[in-house]
Amino acid sequence: MSTVDGLTAPVDVADEISTASRRRLVRRRGGAGRSSLGSGARWAGWLFALPALVMYAVFELYPIITAVQYSFFDWDGVSAATPAGLKNYTRVFTEPQLLASIIHAFILIIFFTFLPVLLALVVASIVREIKSKALGATARTMMFLPQIIPGAASAIAWTWMYSPNGAVNQMLGALGLSSLQRAWLGDFTWALPAVGIIGTWLATGLCTLLLMAGIGKIDTSLYEAASLDGANRIQQFRAITLPGLRQEIGVCITITIIAALASFDVVFMSTQGGPGYSTQVPGVQVYQLAFTENRIGQSSALAVVLSLIVLAVILPIQRFFREK
């Protein structure tokens, strides 16, 4: 017999009870050790992230806060600033030039978003049908090539092609459509669509690759079952491909809408907002207000409005595509 916790028990039972007590003690100590280790790991994680957080605060948060502050002042960047209240924000929506730049940005969504996504859906569906791996890889490479070219360089190349003696007008002449030839980037009516086509060319490749990756995740047995049920290609596309690409389409729309609303390099390098103000967009307008006209407060107000517009457009879209 042995005594354990004031009780008398057989030796084998006492050994079992004492062993269980030791295990509970080890578990309590182990849990405390893991809790201490977890706390240390969390602090270590913050220390590793600290350099990135500092860079983000210095180069992102601080400029945003400063821009909001400047937007409430009339300031030329040199002399003393004077309080302006909401006057700079009022001008954004009352001055025709500033308001037109916002409207042009929304028009570019047609070329930067809707056309690339539609073309990418068609191209991705066609490439899915290609049985040859080499041919499929070649098609994907050709579609992605515009993404490795900087937007500024693409704008310069397209400016050459849009010139009166450029490739576009030469092609129209070869097709017997000489009546359509024009100085595309110098035409008040066609300059904005011409710039938009550059955006379409740049965005289609990225959207195609994203959608092709999404198509690769769709179970091929769904297409086989639909084919056995007599569904044609269009019906398979509507019933299987589109629902299966919901998240990828959401990503494409989000990226391209931001590119349209915040476009700068393509417009600046091709037209600088001209002719007149026919291709002026907020990104170029912010630059010109700040560095050409020395209207720092007005430039900051337009930048803040542009940021709010992007958030107001993007957040509902992301919520819509997250919902099932």
From TrEMBL:
- Keyword Cell membrane tagged: yes
| Any one biological process term the GO annotation gives | transmembrane transport
Q: Which InterPro entries match?
A: ABC_transporter_permease, MetI-like, MetI-like_sf
Q: Which Gene3D superfamilies match?
A: MetI-like
Q: Report membrane topology.
A: Multi-pass membrane protein
Q: Which domain of life is it from?
A: Bacteria
* Ranges of residues in domain ABC transmembrane type-1: 98-317
Q: Name the GO cellular-component terms.
A: plasma membrane
Keywords noted in UniProt: Cell membrane, Membrane, Transmembrane, Transmembrane helix, Transport
This protein's record includes keyword ATP-binding: no
Primary location recorded for the protein, binned into one broad class:
membrane
Record's Pfam families? BPD_transp_1 (PF00528)
User: What family is it from?
Assistant: Belongs to the binding-protein-dependent transport system permease family.
Which PANTHER family does UniProt cross-reference here? Answer: ABC TRANSPORTER PERMEASE PROTEIN (PTHR30193), INNER MEMBRANE ABC TRANSPORTER PERMEASE PROTEIN YCJO (PTHR30193:SF37)
Give the protein name, as stated in the record: Raffinose/stachyose/melibiose transport system permease protein
